[in-house]
Amino acid sequence: MYTNRKDLIKHIEKYAATGQIHDDLFPFYDQHGKWHGAPLLWFHIRTVPHLNIIKSSYLPASRRTLKERQGTMLRTSFIWRGDENVRMNYTRICGSMIVEGNAIIHASCLRNVGGSLISSTNKKVYLPNLRTVGKHFQMIKTFDLKIPRLRQVGGSAKMLGQFPPQLETVGESLGVYWCFTAESKYLRQIGGYLVLTKSESIRFPNLESIGGSLLLTLLVRSIDVPKLRSIGGDFFAPCANYICARALRSIGGKVDTSSAKGFYNSRIQVGGEWKTYPGDLEQWAQNEAARRALKQPKFLL
User: Fold this and answer.
1) Which of 127, 172, 123, 182 is CA-nearest to residue 150?
2) Confidence tier at 45 by pLDDT (50, 70, 90)
3) pLDDT confidence band for 53 (50 / 70 / 90)
């Protein structure tokens, strides 16, 4: 995790005064020791003239890497521009990993990325041991993506093809496009919206909460989320004829489950309009009346 903006500004001011680069600034350099910048500091560096000196600073090679028991940690970010293939042996990158270009990415040792992992390549991306990404994960052009052990993404995650089989939590939104098999027994929490395309069935047996909207295409016919308790935004599944969400009690926005017969439940609090299967409200009222009647005490004459 990065230090807060206030502290980072203090570190840059100290560098301007003394020439000493604080460890917290390392993620904002690249693997060659050059300053590559930080969006959260852009305004301050631009508007305070003496802070611009950080742009011409240089981080010595001796401070960029560190040997650990598992292997070599890159204390900076890894920035790659061009189509030449990327091969690395780092086990951890403290900053971000940004690949701009159409390169094959092969990082079989990489386990953790402290910042974001973003690439625009449409070629093979091989990350067989990647476990966590501290900020955003974006691979939106390649179908040849191997991330079998990815478990946590701190920010948003966007990718093509197969759903990551061991993914557990996403801090912000999750979008998996052209995903024909949307299934994971490990997924528990999504901080933002969830978007899935091309899937006919969805099965997340341990998913508990979605902070934003659940947006599904007209292809979806079956939704199995038995432990899902809350959806922060809209729930859009107009063509799903089977929805299993027994624990669901709160939906923050609008709902469209107009093809799912018997899904309506008055115990679910909804923030907007709910388009239900025709006759579901009336059937629910009749069923509730029957249940109450059965619970009435019987008097013997």
Assistant:
1) 127
2) low
3) confident
Distances in Å between the alpha carbon of 101 and those of 13, 15, 119, 127, 178?
A: 34, 33, 8, 18, 22
- Tens digits of per-residue pLDDT, 217-251? 889 999 999 999 999 999 999 999 999 999 999 99
- The token pair that represents 16 in the structure block: 């301007």
What is the arithmetic mean of pLDDT over 90-113?
Answer: 96
What share of residues in the chain are helix, strand, coil (percent, to 5)?
Answer: 20, 30, 55
Three-state DSSP state, 248: coil
Identify the three-state secondary structure at position 163. Answer: coil
Reduce the DSSP state of residue 159 to 3 states and report it.
strand
Q: Which two tokens stand for residue 130?
A: 């990647």
Confidence check: pLDDT of 300 > 70? no
C-alpha 110/C-alpha 130 separation (Å) is 6
Q: Cβ contacts of residue 242 below 8 Å, gap of 6+?
A: 221, 222, 223, 224, 260
- Which DSSP symbol is given to 121? -
Whole-angstrom Cα Rg for the chain = 25
The amino acid that residue 99 corresponds to is V
Q: Is the Cβ–Cβ distance between 222 and 242 less than 8 Å?
A: yes
Measured between alpha carbons, how far is 242 from 288 in angstroms, rounded to an integer? 21
d(CA 103, CA 87): 10
Taking residue 237's Cβ as centre, other Cβ atoms within 10 Å add up to 25
pTM over 0.85: yes
CA distance 218 to 130: 33
* Residue 42 φ/ψ, nearest 5 degrees: -55, -45
Q: How high is the mean pLDDT of the chain?
A: 91
Q: Any idea what DSSP says for residue 34?
A: B
Other Cβ atoms closer than 10 A to 4: 10
